[in-house]
Design brief:
The protein contains six helices and 14 strands. The protein is about 25% helix and about 30% strand. About 40% of the residues are buried. A hairpin with a 2-residue loop joins β5 and β6.
Length: about 230
């Protein structure tokens, strides 16, 4: 299995608690958050990860190098900010598998990868992972029918609901109509387009979901991920 991790964000909302490091390198129980993600992928059998990096990329590259445990690491380095869509498109050029998992470098999920693969293969469609949360305002909310995505609203909801958890299982060629240097939002442009053709299957995740994008949630991660930080 191959994966792309989007790890190029500045992390402006965390500046009060972390300084001079990329957001995915924020420490959780003395371990960089990105390392906890990679430990989980290594344990799950991933053999290659492309790290999409930009802001202070030299810190991430210097820490992980070209291998981490059983995982080969390659770097898709953004010379200019590409947005989530442009970053995924660019990083896809480093992949060789037919399908690729996409993760955010500031989000941890202990998803069942085999079930996601099975859902995608049985329906011949890409997969988006969802999660119920108490407050959807920070995320894109979605509606699905018989596991098919039928509506997606980017950061417009309030209250409890089902959100885009920031994990996808995509064909490597699905973004072939977008130029590699084009800067755009995957959530704003690609999800609505893919939803229409070929369509998204929705895998509902009920396990751990933690996004360290704000200080309170970074603090919560220290208890939620205590066991994972021991790997």
């Amino acid at each position: 299995m191959e994966a792309i991790i989007l790890a190029g964000g500045v992390g402006s909302r965390l500046r009060s608690v972390i300084k001079d490091i990329p957001k995915p390198m924020a420490l959780v129980n003395s371990k960089p958050f990105l390392e906890i993600i990679l430990d989980n992928l290594n344990k799950s059998g991933f053999k290659k990860v492309i790290l999409s990096v930009g802001y202070l990329s030299e810190i991430i590259i210097g820490y992980f190098g070209n291998n981490y445990k059983d995982i080969k690491i390659e770097y898709a380095i953004e010379e200019v900010r590409l947005g989530t869509g442009g970053a995924i498109k660019y990083a896809m050029g480093f992949c060789s598998d037919e399908y690729v998992f996409i993760f955010n470098g500031d989000t941890f999920l202990n998803v069942d990868f085999e079930k996601i693969i099975k859902l995608g293969e049985e329906n011949n469609r890409p997969v988006i992972v969802s999660r119920n949360v108490d407050d959807v305002s920070r995320y894109g909310s979605l509606i699905h029918f018989k596991k098919t995505l039928v509506d997606y609203r980017e950061k417009k909801g309030i209250g409890a609901g089902e959100i885009n958890a920031g994990c996808y299982y995509l064909p490597r060629t699905i973004m072939g109509n977008c130029m590699p240097e084009e800067a755009f939002s995957f959530e704003g442009k690609s999800i609505p387009s893919i939803m229409k053709n070929p369509g998204f299957m929705v895998f509902k995740h009920d396990g751990i979901f933690i996004d360290i994008g704000i200080p309170d949630d970074l603090k919560k991660a220290k208890s939620i991920l205590a066991e994972y930080a021991k790997y």
